[in-house]
Amino acid sequence: MNITKKQIDDLNIELTIALQGEDYAEQEKKRLSAYRRNADLKGFRKGMAPMALINRLYGEQALYEVINALVSEQLDKFIKDNELNILGEPLPSASQPEQEWKSGNDFEFKFDLGLSPKLDFEVTKEDKVPYYKIEVTDAAKAEMKQNLLKQQGKLEEGEAAGEEDYVIADLVQDDRTVEGAYIAVRNVTGDARKKFLGAKAGDRFKVDVNDAFENENDRAGLLKIKREELAALEPEWDVTIVNVKTFVPALENRETFDELFGKDVVKTPEEFDKKIAERLESNYKQESDYRLSRDLRAYLVDKAAISVPEDFLKRWLYENNREKFTKEQVEQEFNGFLADFRWQLVRGYLMKKFDLKIEDRDMKEAALGYAAYQYAMYGMGNVPEELLKEAAGQILSDERQARNLEENVENEKVIAAVREKLTLQNKKITLEKFQALK
Prior knowledge:
Elements: E1 2-9, E2 12-19, H1 21-38, H2 51-81, E3 86-92, E4 107-115, E5 128-134, H3 138-151, E6 154-157, E7 166-173, E8 176-184, H4 192-196, E9 204-208, H5 209-212, H6 216-223, E10 236-248, H7 254-261, H8 269-304, H9 310-319, H10 327-353, H11 360-377, H12 385-397, H13 399-421, E11 423-429, H14 431-436
């Protein structure tokens, strides 16, 4: 047996494993004997069939299994003995010669190996990354106050319909009547909007519903019919405005404050203003921290100056995802994969460098946080602790979700550690300029 290594470049190796008949003869014999012991062939007692028959029936299969096991064993041993840090798994070389699977033959197997680059860089106070602090402006506070009061507002009787108002109308076409249709003026499209704007109770006009309500699902819902029935209807309807509803924001009073923040948390307009400022600061800090994590990731990957065997990685991705992606799709998605892959290498390097570890409590806390987030997406804020724990346990039992959580925890630990090591340059910025950053 002979193993030769050909260094293509710093990140690519070709290994050749050459086998002669004596390298596998003994194992081939044992494998055939095992087949014989287990063979239950008609006309022979179990385990007593002639070896010639066993060889004819199972010889090529036994040869393939023995050679494959031997090559895999030697390949793994060579990688470990030479401390090769490879990416993915070895791939059969494009220059692999054809084999004649015949006992006693010599065999030659060639493999391409992609090597993981060696990372070696420091993070010190000399490294500087901007941290954008978004300013809380009077305009932003006024807008949030308006939105919060609207959130607690209600519909009241109105006079003439405005852009943000609603009308209740009866629609008539021949012997078909739709009573009490609720229509938001802002959702009316085309020329029909002009007819609804300024409309008062008792006003009558004709409307082309195809023009006024472009979305077929909305139109069918308004007319209280199935979507497939729309085509059979004439589009023009007589509309009678029954009532106008105006949306009125809530007042700045204790009742509104209690609904927004909980009983007696906010008692005065001044405390309301302070709470708004605090909420904006919290929201902006989350946005700033998220932006920093992106900037740090890009900065660290750039600092690491990672070179990877791209052609090898493309082949490896395709070979391991043949049922999911074509070569063209792998090519199209490769840049995105490469960016994530480089970050994974950097993140792994820094986890070791800073001796960061993921404990069970880290995963549990992350799962609880994710469970609470999922409930919040459905409008459920105050979920009982036992229910959260049960949901977190289900998340952790799902391999894919647990793996995603682990990556998120690693990201957070690395970013937190790096923030302590380098210099953050605080830069005040308006929300508009922050949002315009690339």
